[in-house]
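Exam prep: given the inputs below (a chain plus 2-acetamido-2-deoxy-beta-D-glucopyranose), describe the expected output before reading on.
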Amino acid sequence: MKSLVLLVVVLTVLAGNGVQSQVIPPILTVTGTVKCTQNYTDATAPAFAHAEVQLISGGTIIATATTDINGLFNINLVVGVSLNGILVNVEILETCILKVTTPLVQCNASLTTNGVLVSSITRLNTGVFAPVCFIFVTL
Ligand SMILES: *[C@@H]1O[C@H](CO)[C@@H](O)[C@H](O)[C@H]1NC(C)=O
Ligand SMILES: *[C@@H]1O[C@H](CO)[C@@H](O)[C@H](O)[C@H]1NC(C)=O
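Solution:
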């Protein structure tokens, strides 16, 4: 019983150290790919090139980026800097959303102007965040 208690204490200390040793880098990156589709399950959809992507925290746009020819976007943010009054840090980024403001009709004439792609973001590793899934939301 005593050794079990000791084991729990040791594991707790180890877990604590693990968290503390995760040094947050000075630059956080939000990166991902936007596809030209309203259907997020369609893995074969082509890339959405030249699309504007907004990074939004509680309704405030804190950064924007444009996708490249492969639909890839990249936003680098300096930790501790205030963007439109929002202080950049890991906790804030985890609550941000991404919104693609360029209408889908720009990449495929059969698609609609009547909505946007939106995704929450998730932390992939210490300093890199990515969209969870771009869902089409009707305006
Ligand atoms: C979305 O894509 C999946 C995979 O290609 C397909 O099975 C499904 O029918 C599509 N849904 C719509 C609403 O188009
Ligand atoms: C454009 O969108 C239509 C309607 O969803 C789809 O059937 C077609 O495959 C798309 N074209 C391309 C090039 O992705």
